[in-house]
């Protein structure tokens, strides 16, 4: 299988791992991009973007990157805070008064960013008619009672994270999260990254295949997480399954999902665009360095009530843990976010790295991405090679 693109000679092993992902691990279509010290060093792609018609994966092929979105949404919130328009330590109700219902008056924006709010589930089924009405889903959450005392535990807010923080962004800025990201981050930096894909971008997006289909199939119960996904009443299954993407033909490939811009899972991006986001973040062009340094400081670590494995979060960014495995060299310095099925976005200020992996053959794992991890390992190992 032909691998297209370019690698700096120092990173030649990355090209070999990328090729091996196709040869030995069933990769269908994928791209991987890396920036080091603000310069591009890896830009690879290959395979097919749509297995139905063998449409080739091209340099500009975008993909829905699922929860890699959360880091972008968190950055938008932090940008508002940096400008003095939002206090992340203050109650959410200060900017969203209706949120104070049902015992939530003391929940802070930081609780939302760190998955401590106790609102990982939309309790009532969200109808398809509301899939593009983020405000309606946010209002549903505003009426709910937390499932645990906010601030006492953390549990991955797989979908609700975006509706909650998206409403905070809207209340403060007057723009939906996707509009704010476009105006303040993606467009000024020329990034191929959209929180809500325009029709032309959606039309050329990679078609996702396989992976976890909540409500239709689930991984074997070989561990606690797999067992939870087989249990329709488990907190894990409920957190990942409403709004239920599989209500639409093609699931996440449906145009409604691609254009809806859910701020938890809705970014459509090329690998170069997502890696570029981390490049500019690490370089201090999106947030001030001191803002980012504080944001990546772990606020919560340990057992995750939803993922049922250890997770660690700063202010919206994942930190190294079972839910965000990184190479040893980055175990103290890497931050970013994974995406359901295997996507990865990663930054590392100390090592000057920004990288992203996009693909379309999703795994059944929620917290694992062996193909992405092998690529990240090759990148870190290449840092020891001669420049």
Automatic annotation (TrEMBL):
Residues 18-373 form the Beta-lactamase-related domain. Gene3D superfamilies: DD-peptidase/beta-lactamase superfamily. This is CubicO group peptidase (Beta-lactamase class C family). It comes from Streptosporangium saharense.
């Amino acid at each position: 299988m032909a691998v297209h693109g370019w690698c700096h000679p120092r990173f030649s092993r990355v090209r070999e791992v990328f090729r091996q992902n196709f040869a030995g691990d069933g990769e269908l279509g994928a791209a991987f991009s890396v920036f080091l010290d603000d310069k591009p060093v890896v830009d690879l792609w290959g395979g097919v973007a749509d297995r139905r018609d063998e449409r080739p994966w091209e340099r500009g092929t975008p993909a829905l990157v699922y929860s890699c979105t959360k880091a972008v949404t968190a950055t938008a919130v932090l940008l508002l805070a940096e400008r003095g328009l939002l206090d992340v330590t203050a109650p959410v109700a200060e900017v969203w008064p209706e949120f104070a219902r049902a015992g939530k008056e003391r929940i802070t924006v930081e609780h939302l960013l760190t998955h401590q709010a106790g609102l990982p589930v939309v309790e009532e089924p969200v109808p398809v008619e509301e899939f593009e009405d983020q405000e309606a889903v946010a209002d549903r959450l505003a009426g709910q009672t937390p499932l645990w005392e906010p601030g006492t535990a953390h549990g991955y807010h797989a979908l609700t994270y975006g509706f909650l923080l998206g409403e905070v962004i809207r209340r403060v800025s007057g723009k939906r999260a996707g509009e704010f990201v476009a105006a303040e981050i993606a467009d000024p930096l020329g990034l191929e990254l959209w929180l809500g894909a325009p029709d032309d971008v959606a039309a050329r997006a990679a078609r996702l295949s396989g992976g976890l289909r909540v409500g239709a199939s689930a991984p074997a119960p070989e561990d606690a997480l797999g067992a939870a996904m087989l249990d329709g009443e488990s907190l894990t299954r409920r957190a990942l399954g409403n709004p239920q993407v599989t209500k639409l033909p093609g699931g996440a490939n449906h145009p409604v999902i691609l254009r809806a811009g859910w701020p938890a899972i809705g970014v459509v991006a090329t690998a170069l665009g997502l890696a570029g986001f981390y490049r500019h973040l690490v370089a201090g062009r999106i947030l001030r360095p001191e803002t980012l340094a504080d944001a990546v400081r772990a606020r919560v670590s340990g057992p995750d009530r939803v993922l049922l494995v250890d997770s660690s979060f700063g202010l919206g960014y994942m930190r190294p843990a079972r839910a965000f495995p990184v190479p040893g060299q980055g175990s103290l310095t890497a931050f970013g976010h994974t995406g359901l099925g295997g996507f990865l976005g990663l930054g590392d200020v100390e090592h000057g790295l920004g990288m992203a992996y996009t693909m379309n053959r999703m795994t059944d794992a929620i917290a694992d991405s062996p193909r992405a991890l092998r690529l990240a390992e090759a990148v870190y190992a290449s840092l020891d090679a001669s420049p």
